[in-house]
Amino acid sequence: MVGGPVRDLLLGMQQNGTYGGKDLDIVVSAGREITKNTAINLAKELFQIWSPHPPAGEAGQKEVKFRVHQHFGTATILFPGLQIDFAFSRKEKYAYPGALPEVAPGNIEDDLYRRDFTINSLAMELNPDNFGELLDLTGGENDLKKGLIHVLHRKSFLDDPTRILRAARFAGRYNFQIEKKTLVWLKEAIKKNVFSTISRERFREEMITILKEKNFVSCINLLSSWGGLDFLSPSIHWETIQTSNFKL
User: Long-range contact list for 12-17, CB < 8 A, 24+ apart?
Assistant: First the structure.
């Protein structure tokens, strides 16, 4: 289990000992044997086991759905109120700033090092021999405790400018701070007009996700303070008096 579910599970442990998430991300890593079909095959096996006896949802629904995304080598099992995503461990590279990554099979270390922030680079073993063991290669658990958003390398925001928007989203959601060097690199990327390297559709989708946050005003305030709204229009100036009157 990787990424957001592990992050939120650890945060839940720190707060009230529970995990209330509705999404689980599973990465299947099998060393040299990994292929694009590895995760799909595991998901199919689990679906065949779970589908005859699914848990009842809030409305008593018991239907379990199975989706395959062959091009990406991923699969999803949908329970009422719970989505489990399966992917093979991968490594990626960016041909140029803002490009969609080129993906190839890799090991679990490759998979964790390709992620956006240290707090999203955590993994937890589900295999019986090491069940529950935390894999933390980037100091993500410590950054969680400190309340820091921390990228894994200097070119992170250049490779994927949407990470700037996600930094604002996570900082606003958890009331975290942007790690010192990360903030420097973030602002440098904005000054280089890095958002011009991605489509407006990708920018829009991330903004819509931000606006769905309970504390979206804090997220927008951060973006504005960094100059991150200039991509929409240089004339946009988000001020405190506006935030108090803004409703979605």
Answer: 14/144, 14/145
Residue 237 is predicted with a pLDDT of 59
Nearest to 186 by CA among 223, 134, 211: 223
- Residue of 173, 182, 125 lying closest to 149 (CA atoms): 182
DSSP 3-state of 93: strand
173-177-183 Cα angle (round to 5) = 120
Query: Residue 172: left (phi > 0), alpha (psi -120 to 50), or beta?
Result: alpha
Q: What are phi and psi of 107, to 5 degrees?
A: -95, 180
Q: Give the SS3 label for residue 54.
A: coil
DSSP H or E stretch at residue 122: strand 122-124
CATH number for the region 150-248 comes to 1.10.3090.10
Structure tokens that stand for 240 in this block: 């405190």
Locate the domains of the chain by residue range.
150-248
3-state secondary structure of 32: helix
pLDDT in tens, 170-196: 999 999 999 999 999 999 999 999 999
Whole-model pTM: value is 0.83
The DSSP secondary structure of 129-142, one letter per residue, reads GGTT-EEESSSHHH
